Amino acid sequence: MGKRQSVQDAASAVVSVVYPIMGCIALSAILAGAPDYSFTCVHDEQDERAALRHYRPWKLDGLLTKQPESAEQRAERYRLAHEQLQRQVAVVFVGSFLVFIVFFTFCVAMAYKMRFGRAIKAWMGGSILLVLGYNGGSYLRVLLVSRCVPVDWITFVLLVWNLTLTGWLAIFWKAPRWFNQLYLVLVAALMSTIFRAVGTLATWLLLCGLVVWDLFAVLSPYGPLKWLVDIAAERNESLPALVYDTDPSDAGRETIRSGSNRVQDIRDARPTSTSTRRRTSIRSHADDGYQTLPMTDTDDECSEVSTDPGDSDEEDTKPPTSSSLPASSQIPSSSSSSLVAVVSGQIEGRADLQVKHHLKLGLGDFVFYSVLTGTSLRSGGQLEFWVTAVAIVFGLLCTLFLLLVFQKPLPALPISLTFGMIFYIMAALSLRPFVLHLFETGLFT
Amino acid sequence: METEQNNPLLVSVGCLFLSLSATLIWGGYVIMPRPHLFIVATMAAFFYCLGQMLAAGWWFAIPPLKQEFAWVLFSTVTIQEGIRWAMFALFNWMKGYGEGVKAFLRVGAVNGLLTGFAVGAGYGLMSVLLSYTSIVGDNYWFDQSIYMPNCPEINFFVAGAAFALAYSIMHMALGVLAWSMYDTKNYVGIFFTYAWHLGISMASIGNTNRGGCVYTLGIVYGLVVLLSLCALAFSIRFVKMSKQVDA
Q1: Is A139 in CB contact (< 8 Å) with chain B?
Q2: What's this protein's family per the entry (chain A) (predicted)?
């Protein structure tokens, strides 16, 4: 029973990460298809049809009937080609962007080492305000304009201000966990749309560079992320990170004290022959930085524990808590949030604790997964989008599986992005013509 | 009077729901409440994409046979079935990696059937997304008054949605059958599922004839219903036999 509960928790923990990633990918795809800023609200039916076509971000290919190209279509094609050329120039800026990421990650690691945590948090807070306020406000404005919703600017500013501040509080202060998670996903989706302005080639180069950088940053002894993890482990502190936490306890309301990590609640522990419940302090695996999932729990390693004697009659009512990482803090999402952190509790000196497992995934993973799918949608189509999304999710599952096997902190970007990019290329080159051929002839398999 | 030309969005959404109905309903009812099945279904979707890419590569490899529909279907179905068997072999191999893997792969008769169903649901969902939803969404999402010359009786996208639905149900039923056959090493049963898959796919060749989509739709749905009933009867019998063995 205990073993079954443990493996069920692992599957639930994995799925609790996969669902928000899929939601973020879907949200970023919707935002990527949002109307352009040049679009204005019209009421005429004919213009409305034209507006609906503007709403579609994907290429229009004549599938069944090939129409001759008109002068207008030719001009549009030339304009797109010119824009594409300009965007390709952005490759230079992509190189600069990567250099910035590397430099900034080292700066953050240095700042954390020198105990400038407040500066890091302040920077992150300002970034979140900017993303929610500016990007979110821009999309909200376009949505209102395209739907002909009459809103004056005062109301609009108040609305954006409230949404932004609410999100900021949900991420950095206290909020129900689902609300915190919702805003994190929204922030990640908004950040991923920033790359809409970058050319397709530049985005692919950026993603390839991130794969290499992530491998170095996490796995190399000289990587800044490994450095951060080691420092946090030495100090027995939480890593400053903007992460998506699947722990269902409310954000900002964990009462784990610094220095001695204590499990607040353990939900639905397996009953043992000894029905006593006692407080137990938990020491996490500090030497690895991030916890790994002790999936080799056996029946001998399970017992029921509660930190509150008065809760001994409660079953399955209290949410599990993080055992080693207290309230969320932040790091720049562009730098180091690609670690997959599997958090579990382990009793010091005791081998009979069964705990719930929950995962923490850096927000940067959400962002760049969405960037990849958004780029595949823009440059390919829905077919490439679906294939890329499935490949990314499968890559994440592989990463989690490797995490279970190797019991080491791992970067979450390389496998997923590699799978995604390979599958996009294969889908664009071979799968699309094949599927179109089958569809045209009415064949199904 | 409103026609489909005045309500293209309704036709589009309706066709979308029609094609995805089986996978969404069964996925929501059976798979979503069970996290380990969701993981299995996601892996199956990935392997389906991989299989289709291999089939596409194979289709490109022999240009003279590109227009030979029977050959195209035979090679595609064979690759899909081979990929499904490879998935089963991979899952068996992964079981050796300890208790952690058993978070996703469960043992037992009912668990085996559910795992097979999840594999089939992953296959079915991706088949709809790739063979119908993505094509329609990319090209004619807002222009639904399309009729193929060979199928003037039924709106092209309605027919496509109906076929996509039938084949998604087929994949789910085949998943249940095939996984149990792999588990028990029933080679006759494995061939049986392969033959079913090939037969139902070959039935779609009727769409290439003028006016053929109507009777092809009937034949395909008839075969799919028969296959589903076989899968249901087999599942019930399989579980009963397993319980007898356990007892």
Answers
A1: no
A2: Belongs to the peptidase A22A family.
User: Which tokens go with B115?
Assistant: 């795992």
Residue of B nearest to A405 (CA): B97
Tell whether A304 is covered by a domain.
no
Question: Which residues, including other chains, have CB under 8 Å from residue B80's CB and lie 6 or more apart?
Answer: A445, B48, B51, B52, B55, B123, B197
Verify whether the Cβ–Cβ distance A435 to B134 is below 8 Å. yes
Span B26-74, pLDDT tens digits:
988 999 999 999 999 999 999 999 999 999 999 999 888 888 899 999 9
Q: At residue A69, what is the residue type?
A: E
Considering only CB atoms, B39 lies closest to which of A15, A49, A53, namely A15
* Total domains, chain A: 1
Q: Which range is least confidently modeled, A235-239, A307-311, A396-400?
A: A307-311
* CB contact at 8 A, B127 and B20: no
Q: Which residue has the tokens 């927000």?
A: A363
In tens, the pLDDT along A399-429 reads 988 887 777 778 999 999 999 999 999 999 9
Q: Is residue A319 part of a domain?
A: no
Tell me A37's DSSP state.
Answer: T
Beta-bridge partner residues of A410: A340
Cβ contacts from A onto B, under 8 A: 180
Number of domains in chain B: 1
- State CA A152 to chain mean position distance: 34
Residue in B23, B26, B174, B168 with CA at minimum distance from that of residue B87? B174
- Between the alpha carbon of residue A316 and those of residues A137, A303, B91, B204, B219, the distances in Å are 41, 15, 32, 52, 51
| Inter-chain residue contact A53 with B135, CB threshold 8 Å | no
- Within a domain: A380: yes
Q: Which domain holds residue B222?
A: 2-246
pLDDT digit string, tens, across residues B83-127: 999 999 998 888 776 666 666 777 788 888 999 999 999 999 999
Give me the domain span that covers residue A154.
1-34+78-250+336-343+356-441
